[in-house]
Amino acid sequence: METLVSQENLAIRGHQLLKRDIIRGVFKPDEKLLMSGLKQRYGLGIGPLREALSQLVAERLVVAISQRGYRVAPMSLGELFDIYDARANLEAMLLGLAIERGDDAWEAEILARAHTLTKVVEVRNAEEQLSVWDARHKAFHTAIVAGCGSPQLLQVRTYLFDQAERYRHLWLQHTVFSEQALEAKRHEHAALVEAILARDSDRACRLMREHLMGPVPIITELMKTEGSEAHRPPA
């Protein structure tokens, strides 16, 4: 039993580390994932790595090549637009439900997360700055939709968020290290909170859609610069 638990823990660790590296672009779209290199990088055996890769295939971040191993899933402008359009519309719908169903505690949590996001935090390096801001930004948006009261819809939201992660990371790197871009996001967040607290559903949902679609032109340009637009979306 102990060995089985240990193997499961190693597979979970392998999944977390490999997923992080794929999202952050350590492994590029369409790059072949060689088992020898993965073993050396993560210090894991073939068993846990295969389990981790199988889970990433299910999450559409990795593609299994028949009898030939694994590759990082491709990225494309078509997939970018589809994922972000789906996210923006779903998030707006969830926000509408949250405004209808949310209580005072829901409003208080949004204010708390918004305050935390705007606070200046002392960080040691650029990577930590990106991680801290991203975590607080996620918490802010999660607090907003939590009032919808639908675990099923929130599960769909999580799936779409995971699909967007590689594209989001391109945008995060561009945004978090630009004071001008961060200031623009602060204004968007403030306007969103104002509309939510006023229970102005139409305005809040419109602002949410615009807010979530805002990164698309930036990501598009970054992908074109890197030549990623040539990659086909996963089958």
Quickly list its features:
Arc Repressor Mutant, subunit A, Four Helix Bundle (Hemerythrin (Met), subunit A), GntR family transcriptional regulator, carbon starvation induced regulator, 235 residues, three-stranded antiparallel sheet, disordered C terminus, Tscrpt_reg_HTH_GntR, 3 strands, mainly alpha
Describe the structure.
This is GntR family transcriptional regulator, carbon starvation induced regulator. GO terms for molecular function: DNA binding; DNA-binding transcription factor activity. Pfam families: FCD, GntR. By secondary structure, the protein is mainly alpha-helical. It folds into 2 domains: about 1-70, Arc Repressor Mutant, subunit A, CATH 1.10.10.10; about 75-230, Four Helix Bundle (Hemerythrin (Met), subunit A), CATH 1.20.120.530. The protein is about 75% helix and about 5% strand. The protein has helices spanning about 1-25, 35-40, 45-60, 75-100, 105-120, 125-145, 150-175, 180-195, 200-215, 215-225, and strands spanning about 30-35, 60-65, 70. Strands 1-3-2 form a 3-stranded antiparallel beta sheet. Strand 2 (about 60-65) and strand 3 form a beta hairpin. The longest helix is centred in the C-terminal third of the chain and has 26 residues, at about 150-175. The two termini are about 40 Å apart. The model is unreliable at about 230-235 (pLDDT under 50).
